[in-house]
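Ticket #4471: structure output looks truncated?

Reporter: J.K.
Steps to reproduce: submitted the chain below (164 residues) through the standard prediction queue, then opened the result file.
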Amino acid sequence: MKLRSKLLLAAALLGCIATGALAQYVGGKLIASPTASSILDLTVSGSPIKNAMYLYQARDAADFLAVATGTTVNTTVPNTAGTVFATGAITTWNVVLPTAPYNGQLVSLSAPGGTVTTLAVTATSPASVSIVGTNPTTLTSGGAAANAVQFVYSTTDNKWYRLR
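Returned output as attached by the reporter:
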């Protein structure tokens, strides 16, 4: 009986130690020269479950901004929004691209809720930023790919490039 109690106590103690080891803080890791294909290891030390994601998945995870209908609507796209869309018809929509963009940032504009009669897209910051490619002047309702516009930012060139 004594041996059995000792074995049960030892097993319980080992269980507690193992549980404590899994719950310990795992410090962050530094990626010296990250690229979009760098893999972030999110696995907790000792866990049998492997969790990982590519850096681009974390970087490109973006919120959206729904813009209400109106006659003249002014929108400055926040850095957190990758998709901006009109929920209803807009007569004149003045859109300012994010003012603190990061390399590879994507911004899409569309109008699934109604037509945008006059569209003006500008970039004001950082200093001397510009837009390359024909700027759209209208958006048709429906929001199909052909009726949307997308831009990508390059920190090297300090330019927003129109992709579609």
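Triage note (M.O.): checked the attachment and the full token line is present. The first helix runs from residue 2 to 23.
Status: closed, working as intended.
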